[in-house]
Here is the input.
Amino acid sequence: MGDDLEGMAEIVAEFLVESAENLDDLDAQLVGLEADPGDRPLLAAVFRTVHTIKGTSGFLAFPDLERLAHAGETLLARLRDGRAEATPTTVTVLLHLVDALRDLLARVGETGSDAGADLEGVLAEIAAEVDGGAAPPAPAGLAGPDADAEAAVADPEDAAQDHAAPDHVADPDDVAGPALGLVPDGAGPGGVHPDGRAGAPDADHDDGAPGRRRGPEASVRVDVDLLEELMTLVGELVLTRNQVLERAAASGDAEVVRAAHRLDVVAGELQRGVVRARMQPIDHVWSKLPRVVRDLGTQLGRRARLVVDGADTELDRTLLEAVRDPLTHLVRNAVDHGLEPPEERVAAGKDPVGVVALRARHEGGQVLVEVADDGRGMDVARIGARALERGLVDAPSLRAMTAEEVLDLVFAPGFSTADVVTSTSGRGVGMDVVRTNLERIGGSVELETTPGRGSTTRLRVPLTLAILPALLVTAAGQRFAVPQNGLRELVALDAERPRGGAERVGGAEVLRLRGRLLPLVRLRTLLGLDDRGPDEGEAPAGGAGVVAVLEAAGRTFGLVVDGVLATQEIVVKPLGALLADLPAYAGATVLGDGGLALILDVRALARSAREVERPADAAGAPEAADDGTQLLLVRVGPRRLALPLEVVTRLEDVPRAHLERVGHRWAVQHRGEVLPVLDLAEHLGEHVGDHRVEEGSLSLVVHALGDRSVALAVDEVLDVAPAASARTSHLGAPGLSGSAVVAGRIVELLDVRQAVLAADSTFYDDVEERARAGALLPPRPRTSAEAARPAVRGVRR
Amino acid sequence: MTGAERTGAPVRPGPEGRGGSAPRSRTWVTFELAGDLYGLDVRRVQEVLADQAVTPVPLAPPEVAGLVNLRGQVVTALELRRRLGLPARPRTSGAVAPHVVVRDGEDVVALVVDALGDVVEVADDDVQPPPDTLTGPLADLVTGACPLPDRLLLPLDVDALVAPAGTAPSRPAGPSRTDPPRRTRP
Here is the structure.
């Protein structure tokens, strides 16, 4: 009957799915076995898995699969009965067995048959291990020494469980059923201790244990598409609820309001329920990692142990998929770059076996996933050198960077510290891709390292993607949604001041925010909503606007909007094909009043912000170097000078009268500290004046590194401009490192290092000595608490 | 307010249009654009809408009028005059432009037109090749010409109409071609 054939195909399909899952667990179990060869429950679990595959493949008539599983079972039986020990070699052979089984199952999935694969290699390997594994006989075997594979069913644990539900056996479908319906029972941390999985029913035994399936009410398999559909519907419901709530409140009908509130509660619960139904424990991704660590460790001569904590932490299955590759990459990195070879570890007084730790937990509405190693940590000096070598940064900028900023360079595209390109790492796409993947799903990556003690990478992953909290803003009368994960703070511009207190330096607008210069982009300008030029594109009627401080793609910037309406949970709707290539938007959403709002893509805005900062100057050199170098233009006497914006920590204006003579140098008291000041006019031989008797004020360009700062005094800060390509030409003048063409005029490039040393001859000593010694650079102290923190952190969101 | 009575009219396919017993004719949903009558295959038309709030999409290609909320679904609205390279619709007082909603696979696109016409059935034998005097986008989008008793109906190719710029079948550059580079920077 056709139904039978169809039923058979279904059974085979289910068998493939189950077996694939079981084999994934086997990887972890075998690695666990290597660590503890005497773990009998673990051995029994491994044995049962292989035995199940053997039994079912016999029943479904896959002879090669059966033969292979049988060979593996024979070897496993020896281990289980104590006739042999699970040596690393044995485990390697067993892992090969798992691979071969996986290949065969894939073959069955593709061709419907298991015939044609070359099994001789792995069979011979297994046979050799069975013959060679001479070991003491079992002291107290579970079964006699001659017990063959079928002994599994005599396993007391199995037997007990099997008797729990001894029903329907006769029908072949039912006999197959239990073998196929082995629901994985959420294996514990790392999948190392699966609780007695699945009695293996043999067709010729009557112990077909269908009761293993804990009853259909305990768990069901649900089609992923159905879950997606449910999620979409819940999204619609949330939107409808928003609309009903808005209208009910306006209606004044108490009955309607009550019903609306009830709808609110129910919709909220339903949303949480469906979100939870889509959740899977992170162990689904982690279970593959013990084997990754083992294989890579063996290959690279590292001894590594994987410890896991929080394997049952759940997150949305699509997000789980998104972190799969980043996690694998980070674990590989930890073994390859993090952990030292055993002898080096012993020399350093550490356990020769390195620890790679995976930790997961819920924190603040997000899932925090950590990959930590206790290896050598990251060498900031070496990272800087590599970044320089790769041309990711230039020397002056690098010198001006704090340790955390240098550490952050590992996230730059094209960065790789591996000295040789290997199959496992060194392709220069690693951390960059990790960060990109995480940001794409609204997450973030942080890196923390302590030299000699190890590194920790922290991934922050949102709980779900489909519904996200967003800030509703307005620009030119239109509403837009800004996802909150990139939002750091909101700052109101001052309506009393021109341009709301923002300053214009050349083509770029900046806001001084707590001593730092925050580049601003105006949403109106960015979206072309303002037909007036960007210079007049200021204050909308009734206020100066609000700056949303956003962080994405490695940079922080301020997005100027006309107003902020509310925060709201929004449902992301994709844009149609006609609009799909607009980078500015991540989608659209339906608002409570039925109107639509475009969802801004903060990453894309960050990129546009960079472009707006460097507008092509029609009069100047259109060939501006596209390396992102920005110059700060200053006036010193009659001369125009430029210095890389990267070295500028902040700008200050001080009355000339505040400058004080300290020996033959100048200094100014600033926030209770003495800040050495170099008068650039003096430095460049323009004039020697006595500030104390002069009127007016000076501009100070403050350069900070580590916990030290110096200020360069200039007459005026003129502009910020992109560096032109001609900047390497040398004039050979003292105090200068070259010249550049900016907006059609030649400006002199200040040799910042020389100038800083003239102000404070020991300025770089601390930092460079420590960097040379490979010790850590202290983070720039912003608060005393931060300064006291032992580890260096680079934060990227 | 001419044609206001008709804008809300439901589209009723002729019985022959979906019967399949008479494959020798096709049914067209007709509408007006700049004084001419155009038609879309009724099988591709999901519905027609009278009045829709259109949310503009800054930076979008010029032929995109914006987004409309179609019962919770976010649908792109295409300004058909601009898509066809016709002069912009004069901003006459109070006239609402109806939308013809067409299906494009999974996607749905709303086409903004001047006014809706009738649903007409045309025998295949009555369809003539498109006039070769058409220029610009029209030359690629008009698939034929059907003389009706009182005027000429120009059927349009839905697939080519809603294909994003760049993926549409190549069309010769005409003077009225509406494909200026997108404004990425003010």
Remarks:
- Chain A touches chain B at residues 236, 239-240, 478, 525-530, 534, 573-582, 584-585, 587-590, 594-598, 608, 611-612, 615 (CB under 8 Å).
- Chain A has a mean pLDDT of 72.
- DSSP finds 23 helices and 30 strands in chain A.
